[in-house]
Fold each of these.
Amino acid sequence: MGASKTEHFSDKQNQIAAMAKAIGHPARVAIIEYLLSVDTCICGDIVNVLPLAQPTVSQHLKELKNAGIIKGSIEGTAICYCLNPDALSVLDAFFAHITVHIKNKNTNCC
Amino acid sequence: MGASKTEHFSDKQNQIAAMAKAIGHPARVAIIEYLLSVDTCICGDIVNVLPLAQPTVSQHLKELKNAGIIKGSIEGTAICYCLNPDALSVLDAFFAHITVHIKNKNTNCC
DNA sequence: ATTATTTATCGTAATATTGCAATATTATAA
DNA sequence: TTATAATATTGCAATATTACGATAAATAAT
C-alpha cells in the first residue's frame, strides 16, 4: 500500500501525526530553527541558508505550510514566512502532557 | 531520489527529525497515547487496540523503538513495551523552547 | 513432544517522499 | 516594455513508507 489509514484514527491523532510528520525531516527542523532565530519575518534568504536546491527548499516550505507549522504572506518580490504559534503550541502541549504523565507513573519495567 | 541528505544537518537536527518522523503516523500516535494510558508496562494487547493487522502494528512498534521513543523487553510470551522518558523529554524541551521564543518575538507580520 | 499463543520477519504491491533540472509565475526595477 | 530577482510548479528518477498475507521464531501450557 503506502497510504495511511487515517480514517481509523481520531482527528486529534491525525493532526498531531501530520504536524510531527512535517517536522520529521532535518531540513524542515533547520527551517524552523532558522525562523525562530531571526527577529523579523521577512525571510527571503531561507534558500541560501540551506544546503539544498531552491525547488527542494520550496517544497519543504510548502509541506510545513500545509501542516500549519508556518505561515506565509507575499512581501513584494520575497515571501514572508513565519512560525505559526498556534500549531506549535499544540505540539508543545502534547509533549508536555506526555512527559508530565510519565513522571507520575511508578511502574517502569523496561 | 528519496533519501534525506542527513549529512548536511547537525546531529541534533537529525535526532529531532528522526523522532518527529517516528511520531508522524496516527497509528504511532495512538500507540504512544495507549502506552501512556495504561498503568503497567505489560502491554501485550497493543495489537487488539489498533485497527491494523498484527504485522503492521509490529512494524510500527519497531519504528518507534528504532527512534528511541519506546523501549521493549521480553516478558514471557508477551513483549513489554513502555515509553522512553528520555526521548520524549528531548522533544518536550524542543517544542517548549520554540513556544517560549515565539512569545518573546514582537514582530509578527504573517 | 505437541499444541497454542504471541510477536517478528519476509515478500510484495501500492503509494509517498526526496531531490533537482527545467520551466513557469509573480512582482519590482530600469 | 523589457530585464531582473525571488519563489512556485512540473516532471522525473531513486528511494522510502505503509499495509498485509504467509511464515518463522520463541515461549507457555497440555
Amino acid sequence: MTEPQWLNPEERKAWLAVASLMFRLPATLESQLQRDEDLTVAGYMVLAMLSESATRECRMSKLAELTNTSQSRLSRIVARLEKDGYVTRAMDANDRRVVLARITESGMAKIAAAAPGHVAAVRAAVFDRLDEEQVRQLAAISRTLLGDDFPHLPE
Amino acid sequence: MTEPQWLNPEERKAWLAVASLMFRLPATLESQLQRDEDLTVAGYMVLAMLSESATRECRMSKLAELTNTSQSRLSRIVARLEKDGYVTRAMDANDRRVVLARITESGMAKIAAAAPGHVAAVRAAVFDRLDEEQVRQLAAISRTLLGDDFPHLPE
DNA sequence: GTTGATTACTTGCAACCGAAACTAATGTAG
DNA sequence: CTACATTAGTTTCGGTTGCAAGTAATCAAC
C-alpha cells in the first residue's frame, strides 16, 4: 500500500470534526422525529419519497435505494409503517416477485404533519448556521463523496 | 414560527446529498471494521481515544463525550471491550462513583493492528476524493455545525 | 418444458441502541 | 448529623439492525 499510514494534522482535525458530526446530526434528527411524531428518520424518508412520487407508490428495491437502506431493513421499516396504517403493500401484477409500497391517505396526512417539525430541525442544525457559499460548498463536497452512488429522485 | 416551511431548491439539493452521505459513510466504515477486525466504529474510537491518552486511561463520562456516545451506550461498549480483553475498568479511589477505563497491552496491539485498515477506508471514502481547499471547507463547515459541542482531545 | 441461476423480498438470529429505571457515592441545606 | 438533590455509572426493556438463510417468481440454456 502506498498511502501514508495515518492522516496529516490538517486531515486529522477535519476528520475528528466530520466524524463527530456524522454521529451527532443523525441522532439529533432521530430524537426530534421520535419524540414529536413517533417516527424514525428512515420511516420519515420512506413516507417522504412515496408522497413525492406521482403515483404514490414505489417498488421496494427502488425505495431502498432512494432511502439509503438495505432491502432487509426497508422490509421491516415498511412492515411497521403498514402496521401503523401509513402504507399498504401489494404485489405487482406484471412481475409477482415485485412488491409495490403505496402511501395511504393517513400516511399523506402523517408526513404533512411531521414535515414542518423535521424541516425546522434540519434548518436549526444545518442551514441556519451556514451562509449561501458554505451551502454550495457542502453540496459540492457531498456529491463528490457520494460519487456514482448518488440516488435519483422519484419520477 | 417565522421559518419557511420547506427548504429552497438549493438547500433541498444540498440536504439530499448530505443526508445520503450521513447514512452511507458510517455504514461503510462500520462494515470495514466489522469484517476485518471484529470491531464496531464506536469500539474503535474508544480504543483510539484511550491509546492516545498519556495515562492510557479515562473516566467513563469523559470517554462518552470524546466518542459522541451516551453513557449507557458507552457502558455496554466498554463492557464488551473488557470481555475481549482490550480494556479494564477500575474505581477511582478519590471519587468512588467514578470508573476509570484503561487500555490493556492487548488493546494497544489491537488498535495498532486495526488503524491502518480503518485509516485507509477513511482516506478512500473522504480524503482521496477531496482537494486541500475542500478539506479546509469541510473542516470549517463541520466545526460551525458542531458549535460549542466540539469535543476536546485527551490531554 | 425442465433444470439451474438470478432477482425480489422476507425472516431468524444475535448484537445493538435509546430511554427510563435503578444503585451507589457525593454534595448541600438546615 | 440527617434529609434531599445531584452525579456517575449500570441495567432492563422494547424495538431496530445486519448478516445469512429462506421463499418464491422469473429468466436462460438446452
Amino acid sequence: MRADYVTRPREQIAGVLRAEPRFLSAAEIHRALEQASARVSLSTVYRTLEYLRSKGDVTERLDEAGESTFMLCEPAHHHHHAICRVCGRVDDVSCAALGQIAESLRATLGFELDGHNMEFLGTCRSCR
Amino acid sequence: MRADYVTRPREQIAGVLRAEPRFLSAAEIHRALEQASARVSLSTVYRTLEYLRSKGDVTERLDEAGESTFMLCEPAHHHHHAICRVCGRVDDVSCAALGQIAESLRATLGFELDGHNMEFLGTCRSCR
DNA sequence: ATGATTTTGCGAATCGTTCGCAAATAAGGC
DNA sequence: GCCTTATTTGCGAACGATTCGCAAAATCAT
C-alpha cells in the first residue's frame, strides 16, 4: 500500500523540483541530488515522482524524445504551458476558447470531447 | 546516403498504414505484416517509418505510454487531430485561433511562439 | 524503545528502439 | 537480361529509460 511517509529522499527530491521551475527528467533530478551530495537511488527518484504525480503535486510531460519529465504544479485550475526552447522556462496559459472548440467538434464531427493536450513552444522574453 | 528505392518491405509497410487510418505503433505494424504473411523485420519497420517521416509522408505521435505511433498524413496544411479513445479514429481539426494565441502570448508574456502541439481526445460519433 | 508497515537501495529484468555488419535487392548502363 | 554499384534488409547484439524483486533501513504509532 502507499502511504505518506515523510522521508529524507522525498524531501530532497521535492526540493530539487522546487528549486527548478521547469520540466526535469528523473536523470536530471538524480544528477542534481548527487551534486548536492544527497545519495538517493535512481529507483527512488522514479518512485517518488510517481508518488507525487498520483498525489497531484507534479505534472508529467513527455519531451520530444519520449522521455518523461516532471514539474511541480498547482492542480487547482486547468491550464496549458508556454515552454521556452532555450531555457525551459514554463509560463501558464489559460485557454478560454476550449468551450467553443468542444462545441464545434460536437457540431461538425459528432465528437464528444473529454480531454486534450496543448502546449506552446517558443522563446521567452529573457532568452530573446 | 538515403535514396528512394522502391522495395517490397516499404510497399508493404505503406500498405498497412494505408489500410488503417489511425496511429499505429511499429509493433502493431509488424504484427499486421506477419498476419499477412509478409516477412519484414522489426528493424525495417522502424527504419521505414523514419524514412517516411523524413519524407513528410507520415506523422509521428507519442502515445500516453510514451511509445511512438505513426499515421499517413497530408503534409500540406497544418492541422490538429481529434482522436477517438475507443477506436483510435482520427479526424482533422483546423485551428483558426492560432494567430490570436500567438499575438496574446507575445503581448502578455513577451513569448515568441514558433511551434505548438495540440490534440483533442474523446469519443467519435460511431463509438458513442 | 518496540512492532508493524512503508520506503529505500541495489542489481537484475524489461521494453521499445537503435546499431553494426554481412547478405540480399534495386537502379542504371551495357 | 546481366553486371556494377549503391541502398536496403535481416539478424542479433547493444542501448537507454523505466520497472521490479527482495532484503535492509527508515518511519510512524503505541
